[in-house]
């Protein structure tokens, strides 16, 4: 910005004819120390105006980060949504038995299977059955063919 | 796009540092993918997936055939203080039992509570509990039934071993 251009802006400023951007240009120009002698009488005035306008500058710097904040929030929302979907899918009730290639979903039958399985485990876990006792006595070899 | 707009803008004549939006987009995408992978990995570590015996439930043990499979999750198990039940009844060969022993021994090392019964040095019954007391328990139960058959059960819930034995010892 040349001193002539600054002079024009000053005249327009005094006529209340400048835009906010032009005013900010003036404030920024008079913040520096190497102002030409002809313009030095205006320096203190424009520094005072610059000190009165901090709110607008702060608003602009917040706007600057708005796109990044929206992006970060969208990314977090996407991760949260996918994570919730995974957890929700795991939380859906499941109840079935697969037997001889047939899928049984009748709750009564499935729960009967559950109870029979656990009864079979906990009722007999302390008592070796006859076959195992015989194996222990005579060391019966195990056959590899069973199908 | 954003960098061009900032460069051409006359509002900030003193602005000298232009953020490279392409690099920022790349880093954000990478961070998102990493967070997703971490979330999936953490979820996979829970429950049956962290046990070696999961291979039995997925039918990956040598010479082993799954005869029947039961899977229950939800309120049906609430009366037993359980939240999940999975069982497989299989038959296998001597080779299969050898692999089963290896898997059981691996899972025995990480169990908080264990009960193992052997016959002729081979495992006939095993019950492993995982999880801290007072919280959710994860159980792995193995029982050999006869020369070729076995059953494997995975349980989740707040029920203790004593409660399970009391409920199902009929």
Q: pLDDT average of chain B, as an integer? A: 82
What's the CATH topology name of the largest domain in chain B? Protein Transport Mog1p, Chain A
Give the termini distance of chain B in whole angstroms. Answer: 74 Å
How much of the polypeptide of chain B forms β-strand, as a percent range? Answer: 25-35%
Order of helical and strand elements of chain A? HHHHEEHH
- The strand order across the widest sheet of chain B is 1-2-6-5-4-3
**Shape label of chain B:** globular
The main sheet of chain B comes to: 6 strands, antiparallel
Q: Using only CA atoms, what is the Rg of chain B?
A: 26 Å
- The count of strands of chain A amounts to 2
Would you write up a description of this structure?
The complex is a heterodimer of chains A (147) and B (170). With 147 residues, chain A is mainly alpha-helical. Chain A has helices spanning 3-14, 20-31, 43-52, 54-91, 107-124, 130-138; strands spanning 94-99, 102-104. Helices cover 67% and strands 6% of the residues of chain A. Chain A is rod-shaped, with a radius of gyration of 42 Å. Residues 135-147 of chain A have low confidence and may be disordered. Chain B is of the alpha+beta class and 170 residues long. Chain B folds into 2 domains: 2-44; 48-168, 3-Layer(aba) Sandwich (Protein Transport Mog1p, Chain A), CATH 3.40.1000. Chain B contains 5 helices and 6 strands; from the N terminus they run H-H-H-E-E-H-E-E-E-E-H. Chain B has a 6-stranded antiparallel β-sheet, covered by helices on one side. The interface between A and B is large, with 54 and 57 residues.
Describe the protein's topology.
The complex is a heterodimer of chains A (147) and B (170).
Chain A: H1 3-14, H2 20-31, H3 43-52, H4 54-91, E1 94-99, E2 102-104, H5 107-124, H6 130-138
Antiparallel strand pairs in A: 1-2
Helix pairs in contact in A: 1-2, 2-3
Chain B: H1 2-8, H2 21-44, H3 54-57, E1 65-73, E2 82-91, H4 94-109, E3 113-119, E4 122-130, E5 137-145, E6 149-157, H5 161-168
Antiparallel strand pairs in B: 1-2, 2-6, 3-4, 4-5, 5-6
